[in-house]
Design goal:
204 residues; alpha+beta; OB fold (Dihydrolipoamide Acetyltransferase, E2P); DNA polymerase, domain 1; five-stranded antiparallel β-sheet; 8 helices; 42% helix; DNA damage; hydrolase activity; DNA_helicase_Holl-junc_RuvA_I
Length: 204
Amino acid sequence: MYEYIKGTVEYTGPEYIVIENNGIGYQVLTPNPYVFSSKKGTQTIIYTYQHVREDIIALYGFPSMEEKLMFRKLIGVSGIGPKGALAILAYGEPSQVIRAIENEDEKFLVKFPGVGKKTARQMILDLKGKLHDVLADETSYLPTENMKSISTDDENNEALEEAMLALAALGYSDRELKKVAPKLQDKDMTTDQYIKQALQMLMT
């Protein structure tokens, strides 16, 4: 029903954000709410998916169309619901999940929260060869406000700092963060990518 919402981020919590548009605050469940913490009070775009069930109506949101498409693919797999799909996207980039599915890499897939061998195998059976559209070039129809490129060391360091602050808000200790931060310093990534990369390191 809603393709995306463009508005002001008014709140970020452990599970969701609130984005205000024309006087209405939308509660949006998202994989990494703290990705939006640096945008609080500023206008941004979140790509949304409305999930309707007999006992619940929920709005899920993502910082990119790529993640939204991956979410829709994942909830189509038997045994994976919206919460499970969010958990997978919180810990992995769509490209990583797709690569694991196409390579039938069950060992990688079971690293995600809530994914056992049976679910990993089901993901491969249901999705292998059907994910070509997720990473298709969507730049021609995505609003440009959501496209972030990092071109300088200062901007790169700022993104890493934002990621560390978000992880600290999620409950990770200074000791844990100091362990992974040096391994990420020379990488050229967005805040969201830093968070996911750090989470993978913290899981091992």
